[in-house]
């Protein structure tokens, strides 16, 4: 079903912002810049969003005015909005907030069984919650807390990355597999305990420099990951399980990394059954600075097409849904809204991954479309 892009999803100050993204123009995905409500096709200057972010100042890119942002559609049409990235690796950091660390311990101890989670959660928060919240990862005080937890037989691999020197960094999704605003977001049909993860996502160019930010939903299967950390790949990487958007807000003017550090994210989940969940994640409470997470992601590796980095979330839903004591899990048909004032709103409906549109437009098809575009331009 084709639907219109909702302009209320733009940042509150979008008239003064420069946004980057991708639009499928009659089936050809092209990089675009959005300024003051107008969409400019910059594909005569750069072939990809990856190329765009490598420019000296991406916000200065110019191109053909193709439409107003209110004319964009999702699911088809002449100007169809896509996920705002293309060739970038999709990386993610986990357990970057203390409360999130506690939830990972709960998953591990409950072995994916939601019925045992409430009692474990209360016990852990009483014993170590405040200590974890106040410690800085990698410091002497963190090492002392680790020793105390080991003595109390409370240590966990999740707490290691929460307070130890090394952050958790993993690959969330393959290149070109992410979905954008308005698209279906997928959960595995064999998962009975899962949730959205509202996050700020950095766009990092090929030289390792963050050049913008967007919103993301790092959909997670808590039952899979709770059974074993070695199931992280299955818990995270599934068809349509990573949503980004609605656009990348480019750094410059009055928007920069300090705005990422202070961002407040609001989450709403609305079910077809009338269920409503609200949550919040504050980047002010992140345990590691975003630039430190970028540094650790770069490590000794090189990302020649750049990468995007999901920074983790404070949000961990415990509100009961289908049965008392079983906590929150998605139902098919849920609508997820993730909002931050200066990044906009990312909205997606939840389906089973097997029912989401098949991911068929991969790297080969992407480059076929670019070759065809150049052939038409030179004909």
Structural class: alpha+beta
CATH superfamily placement of the largest domain: Fumarylacetoacetase-like, C-terminal domain
The appropriate CATH architecture of the largest domain is: Alpha-Beta Complex
Separate helix tally: 10
The Cα radius of gyration reads 21 Å
Straight-line N-to-C gap: 34 Å
| Amount of helix | 25-40%
What tags apply to this protein structure?
29% strand, 379 residues, alpha+beta, Fumarylacetoacetate hydrolase, domain 2, globular, 2 domains, eleven-stranded mixed β-sheet, 25% helix, five-stranded mixed β-sheet
Provide the fold topology.
Blueprint: E1 3-4, E2 18-25, E3 28-35, E4 38-41, H1 49-53, E5 64-68, E6 73-74, E7 79-81, E8 89-94, H2 98-110, H3 117-134, H4 140-151, H5 157-163, E9 168-173, E10 184-187, E11 194-195, E12 198-204, E13 210-218, E14 220-221, H6 222-227, H7 232-236, E15 242-250, H8 257-261, E16 264-270, E17 276-282, H9 290-298, E18 307-310, E19 335-340, E20 344-352, H10 363-378
Parallel strand pairs: 8-18, 10-20
Antiparallel strand pairs: 1-6, 2-3, 2-7, 2-15, 3-4, 4-5, 8-9, 11-14, 12-13, 12-18, 13-15, 16-17, 16-19, 19-20
Helix pairs in contact: 2-3, 2-5
């Amino acid at each position: 079903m084709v639907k219109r892009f909702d302009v209320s999803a733009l940042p509150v100050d979008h008239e003064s912002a420069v946004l980057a993204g991708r639009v499928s123009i009659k089936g050809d995905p092209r990089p675009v810049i959005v300024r003051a409500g107008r969409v400019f096709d910059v594909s005569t200057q750069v072939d990809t969003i990856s190329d765009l972010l490598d420019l000296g100042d991406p916000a200065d890119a110019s191109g053909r005015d193709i439409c107003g942002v209110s004319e964009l559609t999702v699911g088809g049409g002449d100007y169809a909005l896509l996920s705002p990235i293309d060739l970038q690796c999709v990386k993610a950091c986990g357990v970057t907030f203390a409360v999130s660390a506690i939830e990972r311990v709960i998953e591990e101890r409950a072995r994916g069984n939601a019925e045992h989670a409430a009692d474990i959660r209360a016990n852990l928060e009483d014993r170590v919650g405040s200590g974890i919240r106040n410690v800085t990862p990698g410091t002497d005080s963190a090492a002392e807390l680790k020793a105390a937890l080991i003595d109390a037989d409370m240590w966990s691999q999740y707490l290691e990355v929460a307070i130890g020197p090394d952050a958790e960094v993993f690959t969330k999704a393959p290149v070109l597999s992410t979905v954008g605003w308005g698209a279906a977001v997928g959960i595995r049909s064999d998962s009975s305990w899962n949730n959205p993860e509202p996050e700020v996502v950095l766009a990092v160019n090929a030289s390792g420099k963050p050049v913008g930010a967007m919103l993301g939903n790092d959909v997670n299967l808590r039952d899979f990951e709770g059974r074993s950390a070695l199931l992280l790949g299955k818990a995270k990487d599934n068809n349509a399980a990573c949503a980004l958007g609605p656009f990348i807000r480019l750094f410059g003017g009055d928007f920069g990394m300090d705005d990422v550090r202070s961002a407040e994210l609001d989450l709403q989940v609305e079910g077809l059954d009338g269920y409503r969940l609200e949550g919040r994640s504050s980047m002010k409470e992140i345990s590691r600075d975003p630039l430190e997470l970028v540094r650790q992601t770069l490590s000794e590796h090189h990302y020649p097409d750049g990468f995007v980095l999901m920074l983790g979330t404070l949000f961990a839903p415990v509100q009961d849904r289908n049965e008392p004591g079983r906590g929150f899990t998605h139902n098919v048909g849920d609508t997820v809204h993730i909002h931050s004032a200066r990044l906009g709103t990312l909205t997606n409906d939840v389906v089973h991954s097997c029912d989401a549109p098949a991911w068929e437009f991969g790297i080969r098809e992407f480059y076929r479309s670019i070759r065809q575009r150049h052939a038409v331009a030179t004909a």
